[in-house]
Amino acid sequence: MWTYRNPVDLQFGCGRFAQLAGLIGGRRYALVTYPDAMFLELSERLVSGAGTPVLTVDDVQPNPDFALLERQAARFAECKAEPDVIVALGGGSVIDSAKVFAAAAGDFTTVRRYLETSENAGALSQIPIIAVPTTAGTGSEVTCWGTIWDRETGRKFSLARPGLYPSHAVVDPELTLDMPLGLTVATGLDALSHAFESIWNRNRNPVSTGHAIAAASEIMRVLPRLVEQLGNVDLRARMAKAALLAGLAFSNTKTAIAHSISYPVTLRHDVQHGIACSFTLPLIVRSLASSDLPCLEAVKAILGEDLIDGADRLQAFLENLGISTDPASYGIGREEWLDLIGTALVGERGQNFVGSREELLGRDPYERGVPRQIPAQ
Ligand SMILES: NC(=O)c1ccc[n+]([C@@H]2O[C@H](COP(=O)([O-])OP(=O)(O)OC[C@H]3O[C@@H](n4cnc5c(N)ncnc54)[C@H](O)[C@@H]3O)[C@@H](O)[C@H]2O)c1
Ligand SMILES: [Fe+2]
Q1: Terminal-residue alpha carbon distance, the chain
Q2: Rounded to two decimals, what is the model's pTM?
């Protein structure tokens, strides 16, 4: 028995951005975006069609943090009239920030309290969101959660509520054309990780798995070509579609062990999210290779029948993109590595992982994943 649900109305294609004003349809809107020139230009284009927003939050920073979110959310309380809709124009950090603002509706303390205690969900608001992703990507345009960071205490929170699915996702691949190389790789690998993570996942279902196989296979075909031709709009469109499919896949499963490992790696070692959640993928595949788990059929559909060979190819794919799979290159020592894995496995996302603790700890990432003595539990 299984169910699959995703309520987001998808609008995909080059030039879709021009139709955003029509979608807002004269409603009072708040615009959430980054401060960079490219986004100022896009905002001006939007305003010329949709009118002036009742509020613009244009100082979003990568990896939204409690302290800034609190100040930004307060601006909604100062608004003369609450917006009918929030337009999130940017990558995962913008869309996740918009989810916080949608839930807070000017009162960040309700969000903070909910995140810290899981209490009083009823006090959270749910202003509708139109998500317009400019990276490909986090998939946040089709998920009902946002990642929030608290650097001061070194913690990461997930604000997850069914009411936080965007009402619409407007995916215009042309908006991703100016992504520089490093961002293209990191965001593409984030999407690849979402696809794999939805497969080795206790919550998987045939629809999520189908989307994940299509997404991961396409990303592995397209990303190596895209890094050679960053301005190729067809390749950008294929990546945007693949990232969207990966988003649809993990929107129903959440992520698993690679993401659980990634959060402390980002917080402690300042590694970009997309890299932190993907450099462990070959090791995870190796840890699954000798099992007879049903989900392996899907992993084989992407990487081929021989998964040890497939893991080697996945590693070569990452290395060709300039991504090391050696934890030492991110400043993670052996002791910290074992601690990371142990903690990651018991974390909320880690518990979604269907593989075995022993197999995972039994692979040495410092030695290209060759088996080693399994540490005592
Ligand atoms: N909610 C979810 O489902 C979900 C899933 C995965 C990741 N995330 C979160 O999303 C965040 C990462 O988001 P991201 O990887 O999309 O990047 P981002 O939103 O953090 O943006 C990173 C940088 O890229 C720049 N940028 C964005 N689009 C650009 C473009 N088209 N051209 C040039 N520059 C551009 C921005 O100005 C910013 O400085 C992390 O906080 C991560 O935890 C959320
Ligand atoms: Fe991710």
Answers
A1: 34
A2: 0.96
